[in-house]
Design brief:
mainly alpha; two-stranded antiparallel ribbon; 2 strands
Length: 127
């Protein structure tokens, strides 16, 4: 079977809800770590912090819990795919701090800061 090749961003409503690339303020493609978290909020209706808190209540922050267990939970409960699930796995295990490697860079995965905003878009806009 031949692989499916998509040569354009796929809107959230197409192809089983695949994530489309976000466009930054300068018009370039961007899929930053923060954009993943924003997309998770859009899809689930919950802030990343609420999902992290739920994961902790379930014991998913324990060091012996495999990432696949968390990804499976997020898929079953919220319909999230592996990429978005792994973004939350990072935050559940390591907190909101990310590597500064992409901060201030010009790459497609750049972030504005090394600290992710977990309290939702509305709260970030008013901060």
């Amino acid at each position: 079977m031949l692989p499916i090749v998509v040569d354009r961003p796929v809107p959230l409503t197409e192809a089983g809800g695949r994530q489309q690339r976000r466009t930054n303020d300068t018009g370039g493609d961007q899929m930053s770590f923060q954009a993943y978290l924003d997309a998770i909020e859009d899809r689930t209706g919950k802030t990343p912090r609420a999902l992290v808190d739920e994961a902790r209540r379930r014991g998913y922050d324990r060091t012996d819990v495999k990432a696949g267990v968390i990804v499976d939970w997020l898929k079953e409960e919220y319909g999230l795919g592996r990429g978005h699930g792994m973004a939350l796995v990072h935050v559940i295990r390591k907190g909101p701090t990310i590597s500064a490697r992409h901060v201030g860079s010009t790459g497609s995965h750049r972030d504005a800061t090394d600290t992710l905003w977990l309290d939702g878009r509305a709260a970030r806009a008013s901060a």
